[in-house]
Fold each of these.
Amino acid sequence: MQDWIKTVPKAVLHDHLDGGLRVETLIELANQQGYKSLPSNNHDELKKWIQPKPNKSLAINLEAWDHTIGVMQDSDSIYRVTMEALEDLSNDGVVYAELRFAPLVHTFKELSTSEIIKSVVNGIKDGMEKFDIIAGVILCAMRQEKNSLEVVNLCIEHSDVVGFDLAGPEVGFSVLNHDRACDLALENNVNVTLHADWEVPEGIKEVVLDSKAKRIGHGSQIINDISFENEKVTFNNEAAKYVFDNNIALELCPTSNVQCGAFANVSEHSFGKLYEAGFNVTINTDNRLMSDISMSEEVNNVVESFDLTEKDILKITKNTIEAGFVKPDLKNKLLEKLTI
Ligand SMILES: [Zn+2]
């Protein structure tokens, strides 16, 4: 890895809190709580068990979430995981981070949804002060559940929350089933970003045109909705044109996409072509623990695959912060410090 990649200011919009724990924290929390279900309490063995397996169609270990969520059922653990996420990101040169999580899956013990959100918000506030990073939290509802209205209402009640997202399986679980939740968010000025990964061809349209999301979680498949004629981009449908014309940020997660089988490797990822075509691309980790990836490594993969320079990354960082949901005054202070 070239030296500048670690130190260049980086920004991440798409990072799941429950997908980014440190392995040692997972083990320590399990021990403290008497949580007996971990497949191993040995650091290296557990890391290996969680890590994506090469040559498998779905390399990401979905079972790992049972354990990370399993140990995040009390305020102290949720606060610790949030603080550590900001510490790790800051140490990796990240200056702006949005963390997301689904509050309703942390209610298995005694916590109320408000207590859960406050634990993360307090972690964000303290982490911002301690680790010199600007951060915000997005609340996720799950597409396969029927409680998205409740999650939007939590976004409205907690003014420190910066946005709303729909995550979870996409095939058979359209965002259109959550139209009332998205409308409610819109009416109450809650920022919306919705997952639209690679499996549903009409996903981008449903997210930006039907649901009016301000950003797209992933969105790499938009490459199928555009063509290149004499190096000029043309749009095959209204949704792709809308995304381009409105500078809608694509929260691209190259490593996660490769591990899920959407692309053979990062070099084949649509990132390069979309960047060249002038789409508002951002670089994201998705799940640092499950994908065994850091932000620097993610940026490095993109730099090496598409021959990008430090200037390119700084420009992407600036665009990423501008697309961020955190209050403008905090973003502007940060943007003033970034010189290209
Ligand atoms: Zn995601």
Amino acid sequence: MKQQYRQILSTLKPFVKWAGGKRQLMPVLNENLPKIFGTYHEPFLGGGALLFHILTKQNKQKCSLSDLNADLILSYTVIRNRVDELIHSLKIHEKNYYKDSKSYYYSVRESNPGDEIEKTSRLLFLNRTCFNGLYRVNRKGKFNVPLGKYTNPNIVNEENLRFVSAILDSNRISIQCRDFEAVLGDVKKGDFIYFDPPYQPVSQTANFTSYTDKDFAYGDLSRLVKLCMDLDAKGCKVLLSNSNSADVIDMFSKKPWKINKIQATRSINSDSKKRSGHFELLIKNY
Ligand SMILES: C[S@@+](CC[C@H](N)C(=O)[O-])C[C@H]1O[C@@H](n2cnc3c(N)ncnc32)[C@H](O)[C@@H]1O
């Protein structure tokens, strides 16, 4: 059993590819983690790259996780509570996709299932087969990404889904759909909060913020900055990712905030040649 658990931990990874996901930045994020902390809070959870990294290192870690995207949060809870039914539903998608990928993809994209298993298997299926694995919705909250060019997409990653289900099935982990500011009511001194919000646009063309039907606006950034100050005053350890934006640098220019410029790869540009290196910010108060 112990060996099985160790195997789970060494291969655990996010179950969705999420725009702005942090898998490629894991070495530098890892170097910037606090040495000790109480509960881990991730209020812009997305695909949870840092969460899974932390659980790989410390599987008993207490975690409080949230995101405003209701379909995403539903996926976490369905994977935790009903993974067998989910895998069964994904296998049906896989079978149909391989008969006629184009017409099947668009029929699933147009569908709007009410059942929670079907909703989650639709999200995971579209995530595996859509262009660039990019989750994006329009103002009506409708997923609007075209079919991707894959010859053999891994639609049912059964092993990883079971690993994720096993690790999330713990009373040490809470998962909620809510706005990021609610984290203030949950934290205690010594807790660690990682914020990975939709990034502040640095140019007219770099304004990807459509994870939900509401864009992340300048007012949200101001709320986030105020929240970071309040968390600092409570004695929490705060780590924040953002774009290399002059506004953000200015907002965190005072003590105790330390700003690191780190090299990153932008993975959501549709032109793979433009996904090369750029700088982004890693800001912390410890
Ligand atoms: C950059 S992504 C996080 C990516 C994540 N770190 C990963 O590794 O996949 C930002 C997330 O913030 C969520 N979000 C946007 N506005 C929010 C809000 N007001 N409150 C909470 N979450 C929000 C989006 O749904 C999205 O999942």
Amino acid sequence: MAEQTKLVKDMLEMFGPDRVFSSDLDRYTYTYDSSFLSQINEYYPDVVVCPKGTEEVSKVMRYAYENEIPVTPRGAGTGQTGGSVAICGGIILDLSTWNEVVEIDTVNMQVVVRPGVVHNHLNNTLSSYGLFFPPDPGSSKMATIGGMVSNNASGLRAVKFGNTSQYVLGLEVVLPNGEVMKTGGLKSKALKSVSGLDLTRLYNGSEGTLGVITEIRIKVLPKPQARGILLALFPKLEDSAETVLEVFKNGLIPSGIEILDDGGIKAANKYKPELNLPEVEAALFFEVNGSKPAVEYEGLQIKEIAEKRACHVEWATDPDRMAKLWQGRAVIGAASARVKEGATRIFAGEDVCFPIAKVPYALRAIKDIGKQYNTQVVIYGHIGDGNMHTAPIIDPLKPEEVEACHKVADSIHRLALEVGGSTTGEHGVGITRTPYMEEEHGKALDIMRM
Ligand SMILES: Cc1cc2nc3c(=O)[nH]c(=O)nc-3n(C[C@H](O)[C@H](O)[C@H](O)COP(=O)(O)OP(=O)(O)OC[C@H]3O[C@@H](n4cnc5c(N)ncnc54)[C@H](O)[C@@H]3O)c2cc1C
């Protein structure tokens, strides 16, 4: 307690009461992110500091280094693996309030932002310049760019445009001892560089373990002219995945390919009855973007392929119709719990990634795992990358359901490793994937620890 008081006093002296929080209630609001694990445990930080400048971050880091106090950087806390909670106590550096877009260089197609800028805000700002930042997490209205870089986030458009790391050109980082470094060249505006070791890439996905990201230079792209959406419904789950493989075999790369399984369809219908989706085993949503003729051509090619296995296919380019079709996918995060009265959707084992050739097998295997533990698992997500969201739906107040949920999540992680996939395609390791790191990485884990 005495130590905590000194820490809080020192932080208050450095930053004043408006940016230092230490009451029980304030600290409580930082004990969790979106992971289930952080909701069933309480990880209190000793103090929360909201810095607004590189020098301020540096001061905190130097202080913490000299006094051996753990520091956990935090963006919006939407991470699903407990990465932004202070599992060893100490200081939480809340960077969400440091949210300036520093520069928009339209000609060189790049922007410089501070870590707390929210993804959706950045894209709304870029839209008026005819530009966009392609990674597109479902948490777009909340997630910060600092958090996205640190988790190497991706999302609905990764199948064509890749993940965050493919757009990060350079970073300013405060190192654990308070020193400041710039990666990607001190004055660079280049869109490509192979000068020196790629430290920028090392920080992508480093989850706050290697320093605090205080500035980010990002490549942006011209906004595509046109877009189209195709909805395809499949009586048999595996046929949806086979259709995806056939689309790729035909040389087509949609900008998004998303799946909802039967539970997902049911949940979406309960949440928004006007959607009225037929209750089949799987629905696929393809998004195509690019020039107008290319979109039309690709859309019709995908339609032809989907019709071989689907019982219903609809292609739309009308904005209202597209918005309506896409709603089925858009609501699922919030809707999934509706498949079971009074239950909650759990974030555990929720973003494993399978090799795409194994997806037809993996989809059915996940269903079987759910049955084995008597737990409904809703499947949805980025099937084009093999990156599936698996949502166990349970009553978290019933210990036997929580126990079953842990077993389901563990089995899904192990299934991913067994078929040559990854335990996490986009959300990261945090505290939830540490048990699998040895098996997934072998010797490379020792190097990461160093
Ligand atoms: C509804 C919902 C949908 C989601 N959909 C997707 C999706 O489609 N794709 C996807 O990839 N993710 C998704 N996520 C997960 C999450 O939104 C992303 O991982 C996001 O990038 C986290 O950003 P954040 O600002 O909330 O970071 P936080 O959760 O606050 O932090 C995440 C990690 O980054 C570290 N960190 C944060 N800021 C910094 C910094 N400035 N310097 C160093 N380290 C830092 C933290 O220590 C932590 O380890 C979703 C989450 C929710 C709740």
Amino acid sequence: MTSHTPRVITRSDPTEIRIEWVDGHETVYSAQQLRAICPCARCVDEMSGVRTHDPASVPAELTQKDLTMVGNYAISMQFSDTHNTGIFPFSMLRENDPEPSA
Ligand SMILES: [Zn+2]
């Protein structure tokens, strides 16, 4: 078990996902933040790794639904802009923590 393992994942609101990690740290991601870091092939060029989707184009009021586990290492969801191909590994989510612990 590493700190990149979630203990509890809560979709408390259509605009946010809350993850409580095994080390006790808690993170809240807005749908907008998650959409902006979407690592899927439609958002990031697979060959170059360059982001082709502009994070600035994500509306602040974006919501998500259909939160599902992908194996035991990631989550996926459908955003209100209809995008649903993103798979968000927990390691990536923890590394993109908007409020990392000191
Ligand atoms: Zn994507």
